[in-house]
């Protein structure tokens, strides 16, 4: 039929567009995704429960090869791969689980190690999948970061195998076991690994992550120093935080010689922070203050309430003697504050049009032999060189020391490089899958503050498991996936593998 008139062309367009939209995700991919959920959702949840039981946390006092949590975890993966009819390879810190044949392949990259968890802050053990405390949620360390995605990928591959879906590319699931602690073993593995043309990490957010800020840190040591005129109020202790990539939900201070007037002033300022729960106790004539906020991943400090920063702010009412604790509180109040974009730290703050602002979150204050070390976690976007940022950090610290007449101990600055991939060939198919299953037709590529293994592989982007606009629960003391999200991830990961394996 010829369509010479504008009206006839418009009518034909109305007929064609719905058909084209329906065909965006292939029938094969949609049917396989539906089958995966129908057939394997309960088994996927059971596998997640099995994986969560292993406390795959790096330990300084025990080598990886001797850690039974990791050897047990790998054994569970090997057994599960065998049960599902998938190929299993053990490369030490890296496990490869594969489906299909041929030299052309796609890499699905994830990790099986997790961050520590403070069991006292969980309704049940963080290393037991909890389905009862909050119905509809799967709670446990690793559920979102990254054992949930591993379980999802396994059953997506199983569904594809069951249905004998034709694939032009072999699927290789890479499970790295030191992502949270040491990237060197993965770098060594990748030197000899036949790199896939397309790589997808399942360790971040939807729709598709094409840029990641660089994980960076400023470590400032306040040296031990005896307080002169010890009859005046001073800070004997100040500490908090659990690990370096978590916005801390707890911090502590101990005040010696606190006067009633000082206590009232601290309490009054603390009352201005309703998002923080403060407790005040006075054993042995000292004032003990505990601040409790909300923990979150340090790549998203806007979703947490930083107990260390707000405790320091509550103590801002007094000019503390500059021992280690006093110096630390002055540093935090003067240069860090309670904001999250380093606006008080000299000239270091900046932003990128796509990646957003550099964020800053104090994550730990911890004592060692050299003094009191404050860890300030920065997530830096493109837009400013590492050299310039390093100079600005040292300038701000130098000027602050002069202004305060305080001499810091060691200052260490580590600046990770931001990652940005342009024109990834599998970007549009991934966006198509996400749009189809969520109805978010305007979804496009996004940037995150996190730092995944994507930056070590060519053409690597991230695809889930966290939905846009939803706080990432990994690294928090309340990590979970909803059952609904777990089901949706299985659909999208199955469809994604079918589509990308046939590019």
From TrEMBL:
The keyword Mitochondrion does not apply. PANTHER family: ACETYLORNITHINE DEACETYLASE, N-ACETYL-L-CITRULLINE DEACETYLASE. Gene3D superfamilies: 3.30.70.360, Zn peptidases (3.40.630.10). Its EC number is 3.4.13.-. Its cofactor is Zn(2+). GO terms for biological process: L-arginine biosynthetic process; proteolysis. Residues 1-22 form the signal peptide. The keyword Hydrolase applies. GO terms for molecular function: acetylornithine deacetylase activity; dipeptidase activity; metallopeptidase activity; zinc ion binding. It comes from Microbulbifer rhizosphaerae. Keywords: Cobalt, Dipeptidase, Hydrolase, Metal-binding, Metalloprotease, Protease, Signal, Zinc. It is an enzyme of class 3 (hydrolase). This is Dipeptidase D. Transmembrane segments: none annotated.
């Amino acid at each position: 039929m010829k369509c010479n008139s504008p009206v006839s062309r418009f009518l034909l367009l109305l007929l064609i567009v719905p058909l084209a939209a329906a065909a965006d995700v292939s029938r094969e991919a949609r049917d396989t995704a539906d089958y995966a959920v129908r057939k394997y959702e309960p088994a996927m949840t059971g596998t997640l429960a099995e994986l969560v039981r292993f406390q795959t946390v790096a330990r300084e006092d025990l080598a990886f090869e001797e850690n039974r949590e990791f050897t047990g975890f790998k054994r569970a993966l090997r057994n599960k791969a065998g049960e599902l009819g998938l190929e299993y390879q053990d490369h030490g810190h890296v496990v490869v689980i594969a489906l299909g044949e041929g030299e052309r392949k796609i890499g699905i990259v994830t990790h099986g190690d997790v961050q520590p968890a403070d069991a006292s802050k969980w309704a049940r053990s963080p290393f037991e999948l909890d389905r009862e405390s909050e119905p509809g949620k799967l709670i446990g360390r690793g559920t979102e970061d990254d054992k949930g995605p591993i379980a999802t990928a396994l059953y997506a591959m199983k569904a594809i195998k069951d249905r004998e879906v034709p694939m032009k590319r072999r699927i290789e699931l890479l499970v790295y076991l030191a992502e949270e602690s040491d990237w060197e073993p993965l770098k060594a593995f990748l030197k000899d690994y036949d790199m896939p043309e397309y790589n997808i990490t399942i360790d971040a957010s939807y729709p598709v992550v094409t840029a990641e800020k660089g994980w960076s840190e400023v470590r400032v040591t306040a040296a031990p120093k005896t307080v002169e005129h010890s009859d005046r109020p001073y800070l004997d202790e100040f500490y908090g935080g659990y690990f370096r990539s978590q916005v801390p939900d707890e911090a502590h201070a101990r005040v010696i010689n606190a006067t009633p007037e000082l206590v009232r002033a601290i309490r009054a300022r603390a009352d201005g922070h309703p998002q923080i729960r403060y407790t005040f106790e006075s054993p042995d004539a000292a004032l003990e203050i505990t601040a409790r906020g909300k923990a979150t991943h340090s790549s998203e400090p806007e979703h947490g309430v930083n107990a260390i920063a707000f405790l320091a702010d509550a103590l801002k009412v007094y000019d503390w003697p500059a021992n280690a604790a006093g110096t630390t509180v002055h540093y935090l109040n003067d240069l860090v504050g309670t904001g999250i974009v380093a606006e008080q730290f000299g000239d270091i703050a900046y932003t990128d049009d796509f990646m957003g602002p550099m964020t800053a979150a104090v994550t730990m204050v911890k004592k060692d032999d050299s003094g009191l070390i404050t860890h300030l976690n920065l997530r830096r976007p493109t837009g400013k060189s590492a050299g310039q940022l390093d100079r600005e950090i040292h300038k701000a610290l130098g000027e602050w020391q002069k202004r305060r007449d305080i001499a810091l101990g060691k200052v260490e600055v580590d600046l990770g490089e931001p990652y940005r991939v342009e024109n990834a060939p599998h970007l549009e198919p991934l966006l198509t899958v996400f749009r189809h299953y969520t109805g978010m037709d305007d979804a496009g590529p996004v940037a995150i503050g996190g730092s995944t293994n994507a930056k070590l592989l060519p053409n690597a982007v991230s695809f889930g498991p966290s939905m846009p606009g939803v706080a990432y629960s990994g690294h928090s003391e309340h990590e979970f996936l909803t059952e609904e999200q777990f089901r949706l991830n299985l659909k999208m990961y199955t469809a994604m593998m079918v589509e990308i394996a046939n590019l």
